[in-house]
Write a structure and sequence with these properties.
Helix 2 links the parallel strand 2 and strand 3. Helices cover about 35% and strands about 15% of the residues. Helix 5 packs parallel to helix 7. It is an alpha/beta fold. It has a seven-stranded mixed β-sheet, sandwiched between helices. It is globular.
Length: about 230
């Protein structure tokens, strides 16, 4: 395999039902691009990782099997195995449309980091119920209050983004909780960030992984980033 133009990192935990459609749509969207798909599976009981290995026989997939759990740390493990200078992160639940990756790629040519944003004009959050919308707004407000330098960014907690590898080169990412983008924005080496709109879709299959523990981890992440840098 030649050096890919893009390394796409997708953390998974019990996403077996969504994985075939996700991989197919990614491949269709990136059919003209040399890419590497890194699936980081956290020992899913539904055997998502085993299915990913089967899909790797047909698609350019690297599967990383982990015993521990943690969305942000899974992404960091994906970064370590990426062969491209461009790194893209997205969820496996199809709420992030794979067709939008091309738009991210076009924008990142002239900037360091491109965020698929839920909170700018022409965006939509169809996949968030009222409770998740409220908690998302509170989490965003807290991040912007703790870190004034990112207040201009409308969606600093997005899980769908692309960056150049040099943004995080020699940066130690603690990967606490599930909001890795926030840590990258606080610690990363970048000059410019662009946000583009997208429609955050509804989950088709499987269950949402957010829990009360994850909210606590998010608060822990905020305090560590603020006071222990």
């Amino acid at each position: 395999m030649t050096k890919p133009k893009l390394s796409l990192i997708i953390p998974t935990y019990n996403e077996r039902e969504n994985l075939p459609e996700l991989v197919r749509r990614i491949h269709t969207s990136l059919k003209e691009i040399e890419y590497q798909l890194i699936i980081v599976d956290d020992n899913s009981p539904d055997e998502t990782g085993i299915l990913a290995e089967k899909l790797a026989k047909k698609y350019p997939i690297m599967v990383i099997h982990r015993k521990k759990r943690g969305l942000a740390s899974a992404i960091v493990d994906g970064f370590r195995n990426a062969k491209s200078e461009l790194l893209c992160v997205m969820d496996a639940d199809l709420q992030h449309p794979p067709e939008k990756i091309i738009d991210l790629l076009k924008k990142v040519k002239n900037v360091d980091l491109v965020i698929a944003s839920r909170y700018i004009n022409r965006s939509s959050v169809k996949g968030l119920n009222l409770w998740r919308r409220i908690t998302s707004e509170i989490a965003k407000a807290l991040a912007q209050a703790f870190f004034p330098s990112i207040r201009r960014i409308k969606d600093p907690l997005s899980g769908f983004f692309i960056l150049k590898k040099n943004v995080i080169n020699k940066i130690e990412l603690k990967a606490i909780g599930y909001k890795i983008l926030l840590e990258i924005l606080v610690k990363g080496r970048y000059k410019n960030v662009v946000e583009i709109p997208y429609i955050f879709g509804k989950r088709k299959m499987g269950k949402n992984k957010l829990s009360f523990v994850e909210y606590l981890n998010y608060l822990k992440c905020l305090f560590i980033l603020k006071f222990n840098r």
